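In the laboratory, one determines a bound structure by crystallizing the protein with its ligand and collecting diffraction data. In a computational setting the workflow is compressed into a single prediction: the sequence and the ligand go in, and a structural description comes out. We illustrate the idea with zinc ion.
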Amino acid sequence: MAQAIEKKPTWEKLRDKYRVVVYDDDTLGEVKSTRISGLSVLIGLLLTLLVMSLITAALISFTPLKYLVPGYADINNNMAYMELTTKLEEIEQEMEAQRVYTEGMKNFLNPTGVTIDQSTGVEKGQIAAPTSTLTPLEHYYFHSPLKGEISAQFDLSKKHFGIDVVAEENTPIKNILDGVVVSVDWSEQNGNTISIQHSNDLVSIFKHNSSVLKKVGEKVKAGEALAIIGNTGKHSSGPHVHFELWHQGNAINPQEYMTF
Ligand SMILES: [Zn+2]
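The predicted complex, in structure-token form:
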């Protein structure tokens, strides 16, 4: 009867000792021998594996070798991309906030909603003040308002912003250039006064008239009679006209541009 062979569990087999002997091939003499067990071989293998894994991990983590790992560079790029996207979103939000703020300020400063042309700074619908396109006054032909004698000169130091011209009674005062009547007025000091706005930012003013022949808003041609010379107002002492000519906000001497 065959005897049943007792089967050892695997873990016990691992503990069985073996002798590994190295013989010299020529002499058949024993060169080296050592005793090992399956367990020690297994442990040795596991240790070797562990060390190799550690070395590989270190190489990948701390050297540029990591860039050879497929997908690693992509991940890095993706992270940079995500950061950029986030930053862009933040900037967009800031810009929107700025826009809302600017809009609010605009409404606050300009509740009427009149828009200003950014390039010229002039309200839309208005004519931009001509700057370099102004015609020099010397190029104008001024119609003389009347013939007479200058009784008081133009003198800024005395704040006499015009000239006084004496003439006969009932002499008509004539318009010097095409324009529009912008003011007809009476005051105790100046009597009957008429003011004309001309092109080129020119304004002419006549004071002390006995009567004015035009109304505010009327267009007047050069040479047209505007008023009749008089003696009205405190500053008048005989039939004369006080004539002022203003150019771009500055009083100028009419005698330099026309004869009387
Ligand atoms: Zn005067």
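Residues 127-132 have pLDDT under 50 and may be disordered. Keep in mind that any predicted model is a hypothesis to be tested, not a measurement.
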